[in-house]
């Protein structure tokens, strides 16, 4: 065999990744798809790529140099297991199987363990950037063993997006670490999108500006500290006019947000790890709320502020000042969302024994992926200064930004509540922030309640030990065994 890399699964992602690989000096790419037609189509359409087509797993294995390296890009779930089973049959110890699909990290942990028994290496790799990224440079988040990274590293570096001269790929950590980080990336993406949507809604309802005028606001924001792909495309979407009706496209689109489930995975995982990713959770729930038209229909008559009191709450006499407040609230809430996401990665790494360089993760998200942004450099710098930083938003740069945003952020949350405009991500981010900085939390009362109904015990601020009050007896306190 003379191909140095192979791709299995030639739908849009796999064929674009295969073309990207083939376009790099020194690569010869073997390609295989379950149904022959996709292989014929790809090879026929791109003679310049010099693909080595295979029509069976035996052919495929035979066309690859040792150690054989194959990237799977098939439908996540059972299809991935089916392809792995076939590859194990024809590969040998030392070969490398990479799953580039959107797998749940616990599936990746399971697969890595099972494949390792055969002596073959298995790498779960997060791929971000959609079809465009796959073709021109994705952000790549491979997990797996150090041994596989030695072989894979140079190949992946050659096809990844480049940000400020650096390829957007790093060996994230062992087994499922890459897919875990990709999952959290998607969760942060949900939060970022929801925050932008809330900002748009407040500006629109607060100032009466048209979508095209708000597009200009976002384009302007994109020249400052909010500069990012998501802000940039928001301006594009808002500027779009529907050809059929002549109305802004955003007014013609049904207001029910879809989801493929990675936001939910991020939240479910955070719940198990006990990490409060409230911004990501609110963003995920906001999509769910939007997608229940029957519930929204029956709720439309519920009371809320009158048009007059809403207008009064908004008090937008200085439109520019109002927009600047929203920009600051958006920036502050965004800092919270990223801080929460990195907290989840930190907790996941601790739980699963991964050594994840958080600063590197921010760096490889600067290119190729949906959440690419200037802002990520600040995260890399924060972790470079303090690698063990327990809360990202306590880094000096972010403290400075949060200080500047304080008054505006609180104002925006208060205004939205008084005007009856939902801003779940803005408000939950602020509540998280105030919770973190609180001297005392009412968690003390919750411990009292838990002790009352379940004898769950509590600790005291003034002495060591575990205590229980005899609530149904004479209400004296006893020292309890520390078992709850
Ligand atoms: P799809 O998810 O639509 O999957 C189609 C491919 O899977 C086809 O090649 C199909 O083969 C193959 N397949 C399906 N079932 C089987 C099976 N049982 N055995 C073998 N092959 C099977 O393709 P996409 O290109 O959209 O996505 C590929 C992967 O990349 C997915 O895991 C997806 O989640 C992920 N993805 C990532 C994105 C990103 O931004 N990172 C964006 C989009 C996708 P056949 O032609 O024979 O039907």
Automatic annotation (TrEMBL):
<dbReference type="InterPro" id="IPR013328">
    <property type="entry name" value="6PGD_dom2"/>
</dbReference>
<dbReference type="InterPro" id="IPR006113">
    <property type="entry name" value="6PGDH_Gnd/GntZ"/>
</dbReference>
<keyword id="KW-0560">Oxidoreductase</keyword>
<keyword id="KW-0521">NADP</keyword>
<dbReference type="GO" id="GO:0019521">
    <property type="term" value="P:D-gluconate metabolic process"/>
</dbReference>
<dbReference type="InterPro" id="IPR036291">
    <property type="entry name" value="NAD(P)-bd_dom_sf"/>
</dbReference>
<keyword id="KW-0570">Pentose shunt</keyword>
<dbReference type="InterPro" id="IPR006183">
    <property type="entry name" value="Pgluconate_DH"/>
</dbReference>
<dbReference type="GO" id="GO:0006098">
    <property type="term" value="P:pentose-phosphate shunt"/>
</dbReference>
<dbReference type="Pfam" id="PF03446">
    <property type="entry name" value="NAD_binding_2"/>
</dbReference>
<feature type="domain" description="6-phosphogluconate dehydrogenase C-terminal">
    <location>
        <begin position="178"/>
        <end position="472"/>
    </location>
</feature>
<keyword id="KW-0311">Gluconate utilization</keyword>
<dbReference type="InterPro" id="IPR006115">
    <property type="entry name" value="6PGDH_NADP-bd"/>
</dbReference>
<dbReference type="Pfam" id="PF00393">
    <property type="entry name" value="6PGD"/>
</dbReference>
<protein>
    <recommendedName>
        <fullName>6-phosphogluconate dehydrogenase, decarboxylating</fullName>
        <ecNumber>1.1.1.44</ecNumber>
    </recommendedName>
</protein>
<dbReference type="GO" id="GO:0004616">
    <property type="term" value="F:phosphogluconate dehydrogenase (decarboxylating) activity"/>
</dbReference>
<comment type="pathway">
    <text>Carbohydrate degradation; pentose phosphate pathway; D-ribulose 5-phosphate from D-glucose 6-phosphate (oxidative stage): step 3/3.</text>
</comment>
<dbReference type="InterPro" id="IPR008927">
    <property type="entry name" value="6-PGluconate_DH-like_C_sf"/>
</dbReference>
<dbReference type="InterPro" id="IPR006114">
    <property type="entry name" value="6PGDH_C"/>
</dbReference>
<comment type="similarity">
    <text>Belongs to the 6-phosphogluconate dehydrogenase family.</text>
</comment>
<dbReference type="GO" id="GO:0050661">
    <property type="term" value="F:NADP binding"/>
</dbReference>
């Amino acid at each position: 065999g003379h191909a140095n890399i192979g791709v299995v699964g030639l739908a849009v992602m796999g064929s674009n990744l295969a073309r990207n690989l083939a376009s790099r000096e020194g690569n010869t790419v073997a390609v295989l798809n379950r149904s022959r037609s996709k292989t014929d189509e790809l090879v026929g359409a791109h003679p310049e790529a010099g693909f080595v087509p295979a029509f069976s797993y035996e052919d495929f294995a035979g066309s690859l140099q040792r150690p054989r390296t194959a990237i799977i890009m098939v439908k996540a779930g059972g299809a991935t297991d089916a392809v792995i089973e076939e590859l194990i049959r024809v590969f040998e110890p030392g070969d490398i199987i990479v799953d580039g699909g959107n797998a749940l990290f616990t599936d990746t942990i399971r697969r890595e363990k099972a494949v390792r028994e055969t002596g073959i290496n298995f790498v779960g790799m997060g791929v971000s950037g959609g079809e465009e990224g796959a073709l021109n440079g994705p952000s790549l988040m491979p997990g797996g063993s150090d041994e596989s990274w030695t072989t894979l590293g140079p190949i992946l570096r050659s096809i990844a997006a480049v940000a400020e001269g650096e390829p957007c790929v790093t060996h994230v950590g062992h087994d499922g670490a890459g897919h875990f980080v990709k999952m959290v990336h998607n969760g942060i993406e949900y939060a970022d999108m929801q925050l932008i949507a809330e900002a748009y809604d407040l500006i629109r309802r607060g100032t009466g500006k048209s979508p095209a005028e708000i597009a200009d606001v976002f384009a302007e924001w994109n020249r400052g500290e909010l500069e990012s792909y998501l802000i940039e495309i928001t301006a594009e979407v808002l500027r779009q006019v529907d050809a059929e009706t002549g109305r802004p496209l955003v007014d013609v689109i049904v207001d029910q947000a879809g989801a493929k489930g990675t936001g939910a995975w991020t939240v479910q995982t955070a719940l198990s790890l006990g990490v409060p990713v409230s911004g990501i959770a609110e963003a995920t729930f906001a999509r769910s709320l939007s997608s229940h038209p029957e519930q929204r229909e029956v709720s439309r008559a519920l009371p809320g502020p009158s048009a007059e009191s809403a207008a009064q709450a908004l008090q937008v006499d200085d439109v520019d000042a109002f927009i600047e407040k929203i920009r600051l609230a958006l920036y502050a809430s965004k800092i919270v969302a990223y801080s929460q996401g990195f907290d989840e990665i930190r907790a996941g790494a601790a739980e699963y024994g991964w050594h994840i360089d958080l600063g590197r993760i921010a760096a490889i998200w600067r290119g190729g992926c949906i959440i690419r942004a200037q802002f990520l450099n600040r995260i890399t710098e924060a972790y470079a200064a303090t690698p063990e930083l327990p809360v990202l938003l306590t880094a000096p740069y972010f403290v400075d930004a949060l200080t500047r945003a304080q008054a505006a952020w609180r104002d925006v949350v208060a205004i939205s509540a008084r005007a009856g405009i939902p801003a779940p991500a803005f408000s939950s981010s602020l509540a998280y922030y105030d919770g973190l900085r609180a001297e005392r939390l009412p968690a003390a009362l919750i411990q009292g309640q838990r002790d009352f109904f379940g004898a769950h015990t509590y600790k005291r601020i003034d002495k060591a030990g575990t205590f229980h009050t005899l609530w149904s007896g004479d209400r004296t306190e006893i020292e309890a065994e520390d078992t709850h």
